Give the backbone structure.
Amino acid sequence: GVSTVSKSKDSVWIGWPGISSNVLTKKDKQDIINELKKHGCHPVFLNDTQIQNYYFGYSNTTLWPLFHYFTNMARYEDSFWRSYQEANELFCTETIKFADESARVWVHDYQLMLLPKMLRNTAPRSLIGFFLHTPFPSYEIFRQLPQRRELLEGLLGADLVGFHTYDYVRHFLTSISHGLGLENHLGSIKHNNRVVKADAFPIGIDYKKYAKNPKTRSVKKLVQSFDIFKKHNKIILAVDRADYSKGIPARLDAYELFLQQNQNYHGKVVMILLAVPSRENVQEYQQLRETIEQKVSRINGNFSTVDWSPISYRYQSLPFNELIALYSMADVMMVTPLRDGMNLVAKEYVASHHKSDGVLVLSEMAGAASELSEAIQVNPNDTQQVSNALVTALKMPAKEQKERMRAMQRRISTYTISTWADDYIGELEYSRDRQLKQPGHLRDTDLTQIAKVYKAADKRLILLDYDGTLKNFVASPSRSLAHPSSRVRRAIRKLTDNKQNRIIIVSGRPKNVLESFFETKGLGLIAEHGGWVFDAGNWVKYSLTPKRWKRPIKSILEKYTSRTPGSIVEEKDFALVWHYRNVSPDLAFVRKEELKMDLQGQLSDSEIGVFEGNKIIEIKPKNMHKGAIVAELLSQDKWDFIMAIGDDYTDEDMFRALPERSYSIRVGGGDTAARYQLDSVDEVINLLANLK
Ligand code: ADQ
């Protein structure tokens, strides 16, 4: 579902009403809309095909199994994916009816991963949050999805992406880095001129509700009516949605082993096993029910006596009061999922024990395990360990039960469902500031000012870096890939046609490459960071440093390249560059640090320096930099308009060398000496195209 909260504090919950629109008339739909409105809700209608392919299909037969590490169960079908996109569009259309620019929109769960981006495209300035209730799997699992890119990009439409645990955040960030090539700084990702923050918000429960209810008269009465269980027996309780991720068959195996190994407990314990029907249209769920029921009958058949059965099993949804009664009666609670985003049942059990008796056996694969460290934690696949945990739980002295229970209660009574929601919304609200705090982003008023000064000036100097400024980074430094777009070439042509302008491309690229990119008439070119200058139709060599240093350095770079798949060495006249854009990010990080140390060892006290740029390590003479060449240009003439645009460390030398009144602009984030900042190559081209 989606919830929107606008400034007026009105909020609306948007979701599928759980019925197929194929059986609804126009009037039925209107009635549903009117009725839901009274409860602050609004429906998104889905037809039979969408329910089948979107809900049971992509959501519950593709994403759910994959996100819970059941890779063999995940099915990939085009019709599922098409329906998923379609349903997300439907949610977008309905949400937009309520969300103005001041609204806060909170999108929930794996069924709606495309929605944040769709909303962002329609209402760019609204605050959008996303929360995932399932685990986010490791990238090795996530990458198996054919639509992994689309889903990640869908999520990046949000301002804040929330998960239950920090492990899931980490997996998400790795997927963003490996899948989309985007880096993060402490969980903040820069994408499309915005900052997207990923963080952990472990969901809580309505603690008071569970703590108070066992004391009410109706629940006490229920407890009495269940006394038949309690008379001679210790109660082991297990409550789950009937889902394969919950580990019900494995738990039954462990219980069977426990009964085999501990005859003394026969006739003295009973396991109450509640399975809540779920997603019965999906085949795997039907199979699961059969498996569970076979195991239950086998165990009961093997161990029952005239007056005792080891398992009391029900496949149904329970009224709330009955659930509470059972929670409060249970001596041992078994929550042993194979994988679970959080698991609320574990927290509800803890909250329901106001006398602080009772023992929780908890799977370490549940998100809740990180908060409930005083539970007896088990690996649900280790049958013997789970069986032993049952013995420990049944034998645990009352004092120890209390100590453990109290510690867990203290923790989950402070971080409840409402603190969770407030915490999330507070952080989402903060994203508005986060977006505004971007350093010195060029505003519309600055653009007008620049255009005005440009127009009034007689002699203008405009210095432009190439890669990352006029052209987005491409996979390799090769000339064919990095060719400028026709839009850039037109913008440059227009500027050079004006005789009052001196336009210079200042790049680290080799001279022949730069020359092939542009029509050179009237255009200045500086190659290799100032090593070569194109002046009046000729290239002039500027660097005086001898080139003998290159050979030993090149052999070091080649050694690294052969050990680092995806990296390449580029040789220029005055420099060597090690490119690692296509290297897997973790390996790249290790190798580049090793390489830098190796090179610095070789080059200490020499005129050659090691510099780190955008996914490159560059080795070049220290005196060959854009700052030196700018100083030279400034001395040649009296300029009354100076603008310089660039994106990396080599451009910082240029910015620092400029007089204060210049318009220096850094493309992208990071510390900079420039006055202003733009976010993308597109913004740079817009700026240039608008100068007249
Ligand atoms: P679920 O997988 O549904 O939720 P869980 O967190 O345990 O799992 O929540 C189940 C809820 O259903 C509990 O509140 C419980 O009280 C209720 N319930 C269970 N059995 C019942 C019964 N027999 N009768 C009535 N009610 C019953 C998903 C993720 C979890 C994550 C939650 C919340 O899979 O990992 O904790 O979302 O984010």
User: Anything to note?
Assistant: Residues 100 and 126 are 7 Å apart (CA to CA). The mean pLDDT is 92. DSSP finds 25 helices and 27 strands in the chain. The longest strand covers residues 234-241.
